[in-house]
Amino acid sequence: MQYRWSGAVSTYASYAKSFKSGGFNTRYNAATADNLPVPFSDESVTSYEVGVKTNIGRLRLNLAAFQAEYQDIQLIFRQGVVPLLFNAGEARIRGFEAEANWRAPWGLSVDGGLSVLKDKIKSITPIPGATATVTPNDDLPFTPDLQANLGLSYKIELGNDVTLTPRVDGSYTSKITFITGSIPLIEEDGYFVGNASVGLKLANGIEISAGVNNVLDQRYLIQGNASLATLGYAERIFARPRNWFAQLSTSF
Q1: Which of the four, 32, 40, 65, 234, has the lowest number of CB atoms within 10 Å?
Q2: Contact by Cβ (8 Å): 21, 42
């Protein structure tokens, strides 16, 4: 549902129900009683969101608040060393997001964003014969409390419809976990990543750009997994170090 107050301001509210498909577990310590795979059902989520979108002069500002209620979450339990999925939990995520862009009349452009999340595992349903890998005190995976980004670019007119645009941007992500029942060894405590680039646009539609990603050469995790209690392993995947790129494109 949307209501436009003027050509520059509109508000909206939305309600949605969605699901993640169920399936069958395929790994076991021994054959099941009926020699059939153990199924798990759909995971469902009910979402609510309200927000405002504005475009006033050279400023665009969007704000949104939302809540998602998860039912029958597919969680990993263990039977011995074997991980099995079961529908065994409820959780909630509440959040706020803001994004803005401002374009100055002299070529400067500033864009930024902010995301605040609060997650809570509301309950865990016991599964007979299996051990849960998560407790209500744990964080949901991939739900950092805070994310923020800021970018600056400046469009320089060189004449004859040729422009040069340098840009710098950066983003911050607070502590993040990658699996339920995580351990500190495979958690990312938070990181900042900066990037820089420059683009040249020619009158004939050709664009040449080059830049450096992860300018500060930050070392941070993008994935992790572990099973120290049963299999005795932990694995971590890090993001790419400082790297550069060059790109040539055209429009017609």
Answers
A1: 32
A2: yes
Q: Which two tokens stand for residue 14?
A: 């939305």
The phi-psi region of residue 136 (left if phi > 0; otherwise alpha if psi is between -120 and 50; otherwise beta) is alpha
Q: Characterize 140-161 residue by residue with b for buried, 16 or more Cβ atoms within 10 angstroms of its Cβ, and e for exposed.
A: beeebbebbbbbebebeeeeee
Q: Is 96 exposed, middle or buried (0-12, 13-18, 19+ CB in 10 A)?
A: middle
pLDDT mean for each 10 residues of the chain (252 residues): 95 97 84 80 96 96 98 86 86 97 95 97 88 85 96 94 96 93 88 98 93 97 83 88 96 77
Q: What DSSP letter does each residue of the chain carry, written as one string?
A: -EEESSSSEEEEEEEEEEEE--EE----SS--TTS-PPEE--EEEEEEEEEEEEEETTEEEEEEEEEEEEES-EEEEEETTEEEEEE-EEEEEEEEEEEEEEE-TTSEEEEEEEEEEEEEEEEE---TT-EES--TTSPPTT--SEEEEEEEEE-EEEETTEEEEEEEEEEEEEEE-SSTT--GGG-EEEEEEEEEEEEEE-TTSEEEEEEEESTT----EEEEEEETTTT-EEEEEEPP-SEEEEEEEE--
CA-to-CA dists, residue 150 to 87, 113, 168, 193, 231, angstroms: 39, 7, 9, 11, 42
- Residue type for 15, please? Y
